[in-house]
Amino acid sequence: MKVLSRIGFWLLVVAIGLFALFPFYYAIISSFRSGAELFTVAYLPERLDISNYVAVFDRQPFGRNILNSIIVAGSVVAVSLGLGMTAAYAFGRIAFRGRALLLMTILAVSMFPQVAVLSGMFELIRSLGLYNTLPGLILANLMLTLPFTIWVLTTFMRELPKEIEEAAYVDGATPWIVVRRVFLPLMAPAAVTTGLLAFIVSWNEFLFALTFTLTNERRTVPPAIALMTGSTAYELPWGTIMAASVIVTVPIIILVLVFQRKIVAGLTAGAVKG
Amino acid sequence: MTSAVAQEDAPVPVAARGRRSSLTRSRIRAAWAFIAPSLIILALIAGWPLARTIWFSFTDANLNNLSDYEFIGFENYLANYDGEWLGLLTDPDWWHSVWNTVWFTLVSVSIETVLGIVVALILNAAFPGRGLMRAIILIPWAIPTIVSAKMWNWMLHDQFGVINDMLLRLGLIAAPITWTANPDTALWTVVMVDVWKTTPFMALLILAALQMLPGDIYEAAKVDGVHPVRVFFRVTLPLIKPALLVAVIFRALDSLRVFDLIYVLTANSRDTMSMSVYARQQLVDFQEVGLGSAASTLIFLIIALLVVITLAAGRVRLGEDPR
Fold it and tell me: Which among B163, B301, B317 has a CA at the least distance from the CA of B244?
């Protein structure tokens, strides 16, 4: 009985592992096969044909798309953390009238459906002359990252003991100095967590990137992959698409594996403790 | 880390207390100065576009020329021309997309909750390789939605797909299935891919709750010889219920606004179209900003209603349980 349940347990573990890993494994195998090879199914890697990886950068500005994604996600993270840190200090450490209501409003914004602001955002971006530009995407993506950055950083800020800033205030420090000298170093781990989550959100963002860009050179990675076409409209270049998928996913997977604990801490701080 | 800092703190001198009120005032001023930039930006990129979207829903605006439009009242929602009812609320495609979204949300969140609990219970058990397993679980969550949709599209390809090949080899199906094109399987296919992608999120939130449970209850249950299944339903489930509810609500709100997955997996197919896909199709593909904004506004109202209920319920719960 005991042996049987042990075997059952391990079968379950293996099944979950296979289910989680197989699609990515299969994408990697497919990315190294090309031409007519792709029309037969292979379960094991046969050989390393890198022609798909060459084609991704050859046939479209995929390098440019990756650079765009890095610029947009990097800027979004920097702005979100900069604004979020000071706001989180105010929300987490200072008691003022209207605090709970404001925090609730910000939480509500983070639950906005993106499509609800789509036409208004389109008008805003066009009237600012930012249509089909990276700053336009940065501005739009802030709507997705800033609210939860403030929310998660506030949760972390609240956990620090109350006495920390009192000594600084007694020494005559201004709130700005307290944030910079006392809280910024203490909040560095939380900032890494939140920054990573914001980076992933922006890196994966699709609806705004699809709607607010027009030319392939200005696209970020997700719409670039979604709109990849082959020599004819009816024949999708599956090998190339898989190669592109592998290229953009590997860095994210490495980030996630390296910062595994931090990411889990950030996700739970945003949800469970909130 | 935090405890080390606390030990270094000096007690506040008595002399400092006289300055407290002016200090409090200056801190409150600082608080508003710190919050102002974020509030201004959020008002500009969330509040204003939302207000404009709602306004557009009462106009006949067109994407080609957003500055030239007329106010037409509720005609985008419901209008009567010569006894014939027109508008969003009479469009069967809209109601179909509402039904698809609700069905998708109910089915996928239910499956994800059950699977999430199973995976969390497994990861909570001590076994060699647990850390590795936890990392593996994170991979589907980390892969961009567009990429996972494309990967599954390829695996589900009707002629060359590996899923059909596997099922044929195992003798489970007689002929290849056109997963994403067949109306009977399309929405189930979307659910399956969503389950693959988001169960990890669910499992991690539940796991975090499991790890906060006190161990002595389980010791006691073990000593008394209570069956593990009974322990789960009588002890574990009630204790993790608050965290489980939060996770379910987060997932449900996410599912109700689903766009990427459906757009890439099945394009603008009517069989799987979600509310968000419908709204974007009206807005961008058909250039009907008025009608599209009306759909967007309704989606916003539906989700806002759920958020308000959730926040109200959360406040009640927090009020009962001071932390």
Answer: B317
Q: Distances in Å between the alpha carbon of B138 and those of A191, A256, B209?
A: 20, 7, 17
For residue B183, give both structure tokens: 């109306």
Give tens-digit pLDDT for A101-138. Answer: 898 888 888 888 899 999 999 999 999 999 999 999 99
Which range marks the domain in which residue B125 is found?
A: 94-272
| Higher per-residue confidence, B295 vs A251 | B295
B133 contacts on A by Cβ (under 8 Å): 13, 16-17
For residue B35, the chain A residues in CB contact (below 8 A) are: 86-87, 90-91, 102
CATH number at residue B115: 1.10.3720.10
Mutate to test the interface with A, among B7, B28, B35, B170 (most CBs of A within 10 A): B35
Residue B9 is assigned to a structural domain of this protein: no
3-state secondary structure at position B166: helix
Cβ contact A249:A64 at 8 Å: no
The reply to whether B316 falls in a domain is no
What pTM was computed for the model? 0.87
* Distance to chain A for B295, nearest Cα, Å: 8
B136/A41 Cβ within 8 A? no
Q: How many structural domains is chain B composed of?
A: 1
Say whether A121 and B9 touch across the interface (CB within 8 A): no
Enumerate the residues of chain B whose CB falls inside 8 A of the CB of residue A222. Answer: 144-147, 260
Whether residue B311 is predicted with pLDDT greater than 80 in this model: the reply is no
Per-residue pLDDT of B244-286, as tens digits, reads 888 888 889 889 999 999 999 987 788 889 999 999 999 999 9
Please indicate whether, in this complex, the C-beta atoms of B257 and A252 are within 8 angstroms of each other.
no
Question: Average of pLDDT values for B194-202?
Answer: 92
Q: Which pLDDT tens digit goes with each residue over A144-191?
A: 999 989 998 998 888 888 777 777 888 888 888 888 888 888 888 889
Residue B23 lies in a domain: no
Nearest to A170 among B13, B56, B63 (CB): B13
Cβ–Cβ gap A225/B136 under 8 Å: no
Q: Quickly state the pLDDT bin for B127 (edges 50, 70, 90).
A: confident
Task: Identify whether B239 is part of a domain.
Answer: yes
3-state secondary structure string, B231-297?
Answer: HHHHHHHHHHHHHHHHHHHHHHHHHHCCCHHHHHHHCCCCCCCCHHHHHHHHHHHCCEHHHHHHHHH
Please judge whether A113 and B257 are an interchain contact, meaning their C-beta atoms are less than 8 angstroms apart.
Answer: yes
